Amino acid sequence: MVVEKGKTAVAVVTQEFEALSHTMAANAGRVALRVLVLPYPLETRSEPDVRKIAQEHYEPLLDTLGATIPSRG
Q1: Segment (H or E) for 14
Q2: Domain spans, the chain
């Protein structure tokens, strides 16, 4: 049984797990689960590269959540 809580959720996965995330969401009755996909692999990248990926995906994550993106002034 799926219980609606009215909470926004986004799964954040790497490309390696994108298909699995959709399958698991569908199996749990959450076919509309929003998924934000990051590049794969992350663990072999340098810290500056991972930070750049995080910065590039920050606003898309907020947008996917339906959050207001803070102004940078």
Answers
A1: strand 10-14
A2: 10-65
pLDDT greater than 50 at residue 41: yes
Q: Give the pTM.
A: 0.78
Q: What digits encode the pLDDT tens for the residues 49-70? A: 999 999 999 999 998 888 877 6
Cβ distance 36 to 61 under 8 Å?
Answer: yes
**Cβ neighbours of residue 25 closer than 8 Å, sequence gap 6 or more:** 11, 31, 33, 35
What are the DSSP calls for 21-58, one per residue? Answer: HHHHHHHTT-TT-EEEEE-S--TTS-HHHHHHHHHHHH
